[in-house]
Amino acid sequence: MSEEYRAKVFKSGNSLALRLPKALGLKEGMEMTVREEHGRYMFEPADLAPRKIDLTGIVGSMPWLKPLTREERDFDDSPRDWHLLDGSSPDNDRP
Asked: 0.85 exceeded by the pTM?
């Protein structure tokens, strides 16, 4: 059986806030999703943002991978046939 708590709504700046009991185990700064369904309010922890993968621990285990030099990072522009976009031919000179 679940516990029942009373909470108080109060004004915080231009918003309303709900003071929740410490017994719920929530931590300061947690983000919550609040949903209203037929006059009842439900809240649950919001999904966490995806974390970035830290590869620093495995960098040395792949000696064949080396950082690119500045020269290797510069790529030449490949030629593009821009005239194909507007349907004109490269032989037709337009003013």
From this structure: no
